[in-house]
Specification:
Blueprint: H1 16-27, E1 37-40, E2 43-45, E3 71-78, H2 81-93, E4 98-103, H3 109-115, E5 125-131, H4 137-149, E6 158-163, H5 171-187, E7 191-192, E8 194-197, H6 208-227, H7 233-239, E9 240-246, H8 250-270, E10 281-285, H9 294-311, E11 315-317, H10 331-346, H11 361-379
Parallel strand pairs: 3-4, 3-11, 4-5, 5-6, 6-7, 8-9, 9-10, 10-11
Antiparallel strand pairs: 1-2
Helix pairs in contact: 3-4, 6-8, 6-11, 8-9, 8-11, 9-10
Length: 381
């Protein structure tokens, strides 16, 4: 729908000056600036934004998306193979599309086969985490790679792997990793081996600018390291995914993800990569946002998930409401966590509109403010 649509002929146009005059009358002498939201010193956002402040046709965010659909994720701790398999089947049967296996140790080939028995890998994405030592990764990858290649129907496998500390690993590991990246690009193109861990930069609402700048630093460090080892920017970019935390500040979280897309596209312009889609954004509710009350967590998870979805993440994991307890979550808490996302898709239809926040002058203003501040912070590092 455009502003030229006949529907808008029924409404009189109101200028920004007319709106501001009404606002000033209601404030009864109070300064208009007193309504600004001070996110951090030097970064204030006005609650009033008008069409006159923005182009009539604002471009959508850089993306290659045909819908706003996202994958429903869930963490599966692999303590024992039978327990992990049972929990995974429960999750998949109830709508999970992106299980993330949290490994406690490297698995053997037959253990991977047992773990994935009955899992239709063509219909879900598969993600691996829990690797604490970078030197463990090559063996884990080789075993996983052999498991996939022992079944031709698995060659279209999609997913990712998270390796703790990969951006700062020793040079000898980076050389091995560069070889695996090149091999994986051809042999398993749907699998990403480089995760930018933005969770380490999460500092809540007040630290959102530093969070974005930190994600850019980690991402560019990976780009520089592996292009420096002879890989093309396209190959490195192909393997990257951005993993971020979602806090409780509704509009800030929407704007943060949208700003990250703009900033990463800007980074890739510097490498001459403008023809590829943005890397997928993996979003997870911030552990710091969890309270000691599972009922409050259950409620606030709905707005946290909604902000992530409206911002256009590609995969979302909602923490079970009892995750703060530091032990195995209950089946009930996991079911509610999944159902939050089912409701956003099946009842709110938020998966059907590309960039739902586009055209919201307030969100656009906040996105622009965060992107500019984060870029300045990034350049100063």
């Amino acid at each position: 729908m455009s502003l030229e649509d006949p529907l808008f002929n029924s409404f009189a146009s109101v200028s920004k000056a007319e709106w501001l005059e009404k606002v000033r009358k209601e404030l009864k002498g109070q300064s208009l600036d007193s309504l600004d939201w001070l996110i951090k010193p030097g970064l204030a956002v006005s609650p009033f934004s008008h069409r006159e402040d923005w182009p009539l046709e604002m471009p959508s965010l850089p993306a290659e998306r045909l819908s706003n659909d996202w994958e429903i994720g869930e963490d599966i701790p692999v303590d024992t193979i039978p327990d992990a398999h049972r929990r995974a089947m429960e999750a998949l049967e109830n709508g999970v599309q992106a299980p993330r296996w949290i490994l406690k140790r490297p698995l053997k080939l037959h253990e991977w086969e047992q773990l994935l028995e009955g899992v239709e890998l063509a219909f879900v994405s598969t993600h691996i985490a829990g690797i604490k030592k970078v030197e463990e990764f090559p063996a884990i990858w080789d075993t996983f790679f052999d498991m996939v290649h022992s079944h031709p129907e698995r060659l279209s496998l999609r997913g990712s792997i998270y390796i703790h500390g990969i951006a700062y690993a020793e040079e000898s590991f980076a050389v091995v990793m560069a070889q695996l990246l090149e091999k994986g690009t051809l042999a398993l193109p749907g699998f990403r081996l480089l995760t930018v861990n933005g969770h380490l930069d999460y500092r809540g609402t007040e630290g959102v600018v530093e969070e974005l700048a930190g994600i850019l630093v980690r991402g560019t460090r990976l780009m520089e390291r592996y292009t420096g080892l002879g890989l093309s920017p396209e190959v490195v970019h192909h393997h990257i995914q951005l993993s971020v935390s979602i806090g409780t500040s509704y509009f800030v979280e929407i704007a943060k993800i949208r700003a990250l897309k703009i900033l990463w596209a800007h980074i890739m312009e510097g490498y001459g990569v403008t023809h590829l889609a943005l890397p997928p954004i993996d979003a997870r509710l911030a552990g710091e946002s969890q309270l000691d009350d599972p009922h409050q967590n259950m409620i606030r998870a709905t707005t946290q998930a909604m902000s992530a979805v409206i911002a256009g993440v590609d995969r979302l994991t909602v923490l079970p409401s009892d995750a703060f307890q530091g032990k195995m979550s209950t089946s009930f808490a996991r079911r509610i966590a999944r159902n939050v996302q089912h409701l956003l898709k099946m009842e709110s239809y938020l998966d059907r509109v590309i960039d739902p926040a586009a055209g919201s002058y307030y969100v656009e203003q906040l996105t622009d403010a965060l992107a500019r501040a984060a870029w300045e912070s990034f350049q100063s590092r």
